Amino acid sequence: MDFEVDKLTNSIENVITGDSFRTRVEPFTSKDSKTVTKKNGWGFNWKDELAQPEREVYKLIIADDVGETAVIQGLLSLETKSDHIFMHLVENAPFNFGKAKIYSGVAANLVAYACNESFERGFEGNVAFISKTQLIDHYIDSLGAVHIGHQRMVIETEAALKLINRYFKS
């Protein structure tokens, strides 16, 4: 994984105005993959993720955006394992990355969604992922993840609940 949690927000937040926007997560489709390409600044080949039958790919959009005009803010690839959810990829949209980003909170919002899915599937919020070595401490500090060896990390129940409560208030 190579994503940075820039800020824990209650949704996503415009970095210039500070305005917050509620979000929703929907399945990412092959139609979506036509606009989400490396040519358009995305770091991963999301069409390849869709081709993996064991993986589920989701997009984060602003809740009030509807239809084909909804702008994808970030993407997430998950796999259901026997006792947890495994996050293969998390990526901010190119315009939500770096110093010129438009929205903060995108990656953490997607991780919270993975935690929520883990609870819904009976895994008590447990989510695992592989981290780049230089980001291990960052994920411990920002997500409450636990480093369990090598580059493997897990988000356990208590940390998962904190993320879910922040992003998925009713």
The CATH H-level homologous superfamily: Gcn5-related N-acetyltransferase (GNAT)
Mean pLDDT: 90
What class do helices, strands and sheet pairing give? alpha+beta
Specify the helix fraction band: 25-40%
- Uncertain segments are none
Largest sheet: 7 strands, mixed
Annotated CATH topology: Aminopeptidase
- What is the highest CATH level, the class? Alpha Beta
Number of DSSP E strands: 10
Shape descriptor: globular
Distance between the termini: 29 Å
Measured by DSSP, the beta-strand proportion falls in 25-35%
Radius of gyration over C-alpha positions, nearest whole angstrom: 15 Å
By CATH, the architecture is named 3-Layer(aba) Sandwich
Order of helices and strands: EEEHHEEEEHEHEEH
Q: Could you give the order of strands across the largest sheet? A: 3-4-5-6-8-10-9
User: How many H/I helical runs?
Assistant: 5
